[in-house]
Specification:
This protein has 349 residues and is α/β, with parallel strands linked by helices. It is built from 13 helices and 8 strands. A hairpin with a 2-residue loop joins strand 7 and strand 8. It is globular.
Length: 349
């Protein structure tokens, strides 16, 4: 198999200075779901027939706020031990500073790292480790889980499965065309049924799905770090309130801390209570309306406007034109005629 050509530049809008490339403030603030994929590392392009391993993990599954981030990291099988030596581990067991430093090293060009003797292992990361992320926005999560009766809802497990399959399929296809041989995944739901599902889609690959994969397999640890840092920065972006051209710097509201996004976090609950709109609830790009936490706050808050919907079928036979009828009530025109008057013929003039 010939070496794949370098993939085209990523179509995700460029991040602001200091942000990882997986962060698009424009798309986050627009409530969009999007995917970032790094270029194929040079060592993998140069060894296109060598086996490549891939790990998948997520961040932000449980919070009521912010996106759920799925990440996949991949490298040559021979580079796996080096990932562990560099300090990658389950992101929950690493400090914020360590996670950030690791992702910064991954996104820093090796040519910009000063040479050292012995060679700095960290400088080998960009040449050997590739990664991709999908940020599932709160709007996507909510609309998937709160579908109308005519469409079956998608729960978090289904969203996770679909996203993982999509990430793997992208990396197997041009322009990336990776020679994937083994995939390691931190389980979502029962490991065996998840393995069976993935095996149906990728029968030629060795697939390992297990609990705590991010602590067992270094390549999953790398994916865990990519997902966690991306979500943390996404929360920082969403913390900044939308700006308006009519708002002067003196009038701008200070950022409202979102906290961790988990229901047990006092900062998160404070954010939800203080930003609740009586009619619209919250910013759709920030809050997952499908979470019980959001629903309970709306039900209990006295300011929230209650909506009553007609029972299905109660308007059976009613057509849209009935809302514009010109029936009379005590000499007053109803419908549009009552608002704008009635039509008259030429003979009236």
């Amino acid at each position: 198999m010939s070496s794949p050509s370098p993939p085209p530049a990523d179509t995700t809008p460029a991040s602001a200075p200091g942000l990882p490339p997986s962060i698009s403030p424009e798309k986050l603030l627009a409530g969009e779901t999007y995917t970032y994929t790094s270029p194929v590392p040079s060592e993998i392009r140069a060894n296109s027939k060598a086996p490549v391993i891939l790990g998948v993990d997520e961040a932000g599954r449980g919070p009521v706020l912010g996106p759920m981030v799925y990440a996949a990291a991949y490298c040559l099988e021979s580079y796996s031990d080096t990932i562990k030596e560099l300090g990658f581990a389950d992101s929950k067991k690493l400090t914020h500073a360590t996670r950030t430093a690791l992702l910064t090293s991954l996104t820093t060009s090796s040519s910009s790292v000063p040479p050292s003797d012995p060679p700095n292992l960290t400088s080998t990361l960009p040449r050997n480790l590739g990664w991709t992320t999908t940020l599932l926005s709160p709007q996507t999560i909510s609309t998937s889980m709160l579908r109308p009766p005519t469409q079956p809802p998608l729960n978090l497990n289904a969203l996770a499965h679909n996203t993982t399959i999509s990430l793997i399929r992208t990396l197997l296809s041009p322009p990336y065309s990776l020679n994937l041989t083994s995939i390691y995944i931190d389980t979502v739901g029962p490991p065996q049924s998840y393995t069976t599902l993935l095996q149906k889609h990728f029968p030629a690959l060795k697939i390992t799905v297990t609990k705590q994969a991010d602590s067992i397999y270094p390549i999953v640890s790398a994916a865990s770090v990519c997902a966690k840092v991306t979500r943390d920065v996404a929360i920082d972006v969403l913390t900044t309130p939308p700006t308006h051209t009519t708002t002067s710097p003196q009038q701008a509201e200070p950022p409202q801390p979102l906290g961790s996004g988990y229901p047990g976090d006092a900062k998160t609950i404070s954010y939800l209570k203080s930003t609740l709109d009586p009619v619209f609830g919250w910013r759709g790009e920030v809050v997952r309306f499908s979470w019980a936490t959001a629903k309970d706050l709306l039900d209990k808050d006295q300011r929230a406007v209650k909506a009553e919907w007609a029972e299905e079928g109660s308007d059976e036979g009613q057509v849209i034109t009935s809302f514009f009828s010109s029936g009379k009530d005590e000499g007053v025109e109803k419908g549009v005629a009552g608002w704008y008057g009635r039509s008259v013929g030429v003979g009236e003039f």
